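Sanity check

After download, print the first record. It should look like this:
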Amino acid sequence: MTYLEALYGSQYYDLTKSGRNPESGRMTANLFLTAFIIISLFLLIALPMSFSSAFETLMAVIYFVIFYTIGTKKNYDAYIESFNKYPTEEKEKATMKILKPFFIVLGGFFLLAMSSLF
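Expected structure tokens:
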């Protein structure tokens, strides 16, 4: 299972399992991917950036790039179709597959931020 299949598929799987509309999973996954990329950029570039209009602009630009490339409706449907072919055990592990790299990058970002205070 690829990272993107796990990302989009786990959103779809959790929403359908709870009886909610799975179409909102696309937006949630796109937002998660946007946050992951922003935190990764902060970690890699290590530039002190505050929550200003520059941050909001960066988030909007990255979100719309994801929305019109990786996170299109066509791609979302393809990820879901591929995700649904996996066994239930694999589907249950999808959320952890997407959260591990996210928390590693987030932890690295916080360590970098904390080290700059000293």
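If your output differs, re-run the checksum step. Summary of this record's structure: The chain is about 80% helix and 0% strand.
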